[in-house]
Design a protein that fits this description.
It is built from five helices and four strands, in the order ααβββαααβ. It is an alpha+beta fold and 137 residues long. β2 and β3 form a beta hairpin. α4 runs antiparallel to α5. The longest helix has 23 residues.
Length: 137
């Protein structure tokens, strides 16, 4: 038993030291990967009626880049999906189809981005993307 303990200690201290550099290499790889963002698509596709007397339907899909290595911010984003949807519905639904055309997609993205960031506490969304932005009437 004593030989096993001594042998394990010697192996761990002198022979198996390469593991430390392996761990350091893995940490470097994780750090390099953390600079790559992923697309947050959990808000999903929304259908929002306009305020017109005969409401038209706005269909849009909102996404943005986030960094999953930032666990706290990633969790906050998931917890706020319902609030993001409410922000979009309230904002888009407060305009007529004509007003939305006049505002343009860029203005809408900027306004939604500002409203999203106003409720976030642990990070910030840099760029918002609207895909499938259509007004159907």
């Amino acid at each position: 038993m004593v030989l096993v303990l001594i042998g394990g200690t010697v192996y761990g201290l002198f022979i198996h030291t390469g593991t430390i550099s392996d761990k350091q290499n893995k940490q470097i790889i994780v750090t390099e990967r953390s600079e790559e963002g992923q697309t947050f698509t959990s808000i999903g596709r929304l259908r929002v009626p306009t305020v017109d007397t005969k409401p038209e339907m706005v269909i849009l899909f909102v996404s943005f880049v986030y960094y999953p290595d930032d666990k706290a911010f990633s969790e906050e984003l998931v917890l706020r999906v319902r609030e993001f949807r409410t922000i979009i519905i309230n904002y888009i639904g407060s305009f007529s189809a004509t007003e939305l055309h006049e505002l343009g997609e860029d203005t809408i993205k900027i306004e939604l981005l500002q409203r999203f960031n106003a409720i976030l506490r642990l990070g910030e969304i840099k760029t918002l993307y609207l895909s499938d932005f259509m007004i159907i009437g």
